[in-house]
Amino acid sequence: MRRPLVAGNWKMNGSRASVQTLLSGILSGIEDVSRCEVAVCPPFLYIPQAQSMLTGSPVAWGGQNLSTEAAGAFTGEIAASMLLDFGCTYVIVGHSERRSLYGEDDALVARKFAVARDSGLKPILCLGETLEEREQGVTESVVARQLDAVIEAVGVEGLGAGVIAYEPVWAIGTGRTATPEQAQEVHAFIRERIAAQNEQVAQDLRILYGGSMKPGNAGDLMAKPDIDGGLIGGASLVADDFLGICRAAQESVA
Ligand code: PGA
């Protein structure tokens, strides 16, 4: 049985004061999360604050990005070892905003995945098609290309050290969620593609959905057999909304 994961991707939002308020709200409202995992991914600067507030709680934390390099003359970059130094469990790699706005291609994302995994972080690998690609009917080939690049770099067993997040780009921050059926279709496709290489990895790997997930739609999405939680943007910045999604994840496991 796969344990669902609800991970908040705060993107470039927050201040010391708002992080204090948001994490206090999450900690005071968090109920039974024995059947799921919960994590938040703050901007780098707020990770120490998250560590000091979340240590000993059921909420893990992680980064939103990492460097492929270990140390040295790489101005502006953050190494995997630094994330580990501040207790991170997870790191997001290949988010569509990194791909589209910062030119991260499949090969770079695959290297980031490999570095994260090799250092002991759990990479959350984001995959997803644009609206144009969906309309052209190439969703599966786009997702397959993004997935295969990582499998090529780390092997299918290596992929199993991480988590996948299917995030249709047209659903991110738009309020336009994929229907549970649309999401399930792609999740099943991803799982089958992995199963063709290693059935066990495919069965164990968590595939999260991301893209305008809210408390109101989380239950229906996570009820689908191949949707094992969510990567949450906007709703992860509001304690009650994030908690509502955590509750849906907990309830999605019988
Ligand atoms: P959203 O973002 O929930 O605001 O759509 C999801 C994401 O980008 O990870």
How would you describe this structure to a colleague?
This protein has a single domain (5-252), classed as TIM Barrel (Alpha-Beta Barrel). Helices cover 46% and strands 15% of the residues. The protein has helices at 16-29, 47-54, 80-85, 96-101, 106-119, 131-135, 139-159, 180-195, 199-204, 215-222, 239-252; strands at 5-9, 37-41, 59-63, 90-93, 122-127, 163-166, 207-210, 229-232. An 8-stranded parallel β-barrel has the order 1-2-3-4-5-6-7-8, surrounded by 6 helices. α1 (16-29) runs parallel beside α2 (47-54), α5 (106-119) runs parallel beside α7 and α7 (139-159) packs across α8. The N and C termini lie close together (10 Å). The mean pLDDT is 97. It binds 2-phosphoglycolic acid.
**Percent of sequence in beta strands:** 5-15%
Ligands in the model, by name, code or SMILES, are:
2-phosphoglycolic acid
Largest sheet: 8 strands, parallel, barrel
Number of strands: 8
State the domain count: 1
Shape: globular
Helix proportion of residues, in percent? Answer: 40-55%
Instruction: Output the CATH homologous superfamily.
Output: Aldolase class I
DSSP summary: helix tally = 11
Q: What is the CATH topology descriptor? A: TIM Barrel
Please report the distance between the alpha carbons of the first and last residues: 10 Å
**Using only CA atoms, what is the Rg?**
17 Å
